[in-house]
Amino acid sequence: MKFRIFILIFSLITLLSLVGLCEKEKIEIIDLTADNFQEKVLGPDKLIIIDFWAEWCKYCKLLDPIIEKLIIFNQQYNKDKIEWFKVDVDKSRKFLNNFRPLRGLPVLIFYRNGKEIDRMIGFQPFLKIQDKINLLLKEEKKEKKDKKNNCNGGVCDPPEE
Fold first, then answer.
1. Residue from 96, 1, 14 nearest 50 by CA
2. Which residues are catalytic?
3. What CATH number corresponds to the domain at position 56?
4. Number of domains in the chain
5. 154 is a domain residue
6. Is the pLDDT confidence value at 156 over 90?
7. What is the pTM of this model?
8. Strands across the sheet containing 47-53
């Protein structure tokens, strides 16, 4: 019985996606440059994800639809917590000096509060990237809770009066 329900739901989702009812408008990811890096990456108190790619990179092209699905998914569940950017490494050679060496493409670099907190190198499946995003958002939530409770590194000070 469960299998039949699963097949029915799967078929319905497939049909809707073929008809175009599940698709939202085309997702536009902001291109990151030396001019807008300070404002976009170092300013906001959000999880910033930067996708480094190149036109000639076949894995970058394979990652593009996954990134779009991640953006749509996270807009539904993590709205206003994540911002996505792209950097074309061929058009931004001088700008790449701001980052420690990129060892292969594609590369996803995660920033929070103006600091690099993690990176993923190479092609990654949807679930692996989403798990990383969830982990980083959970860590951010924990950090905020620790600050609110006057906790620093697991040691909590009494509340200030």
1. 96
2. 57, 60
3. 3.40.30.10
4. 1
5. no
6. no
7. 0.71
8. 30-31, 82-88, 47-53, 107-112, 115-121
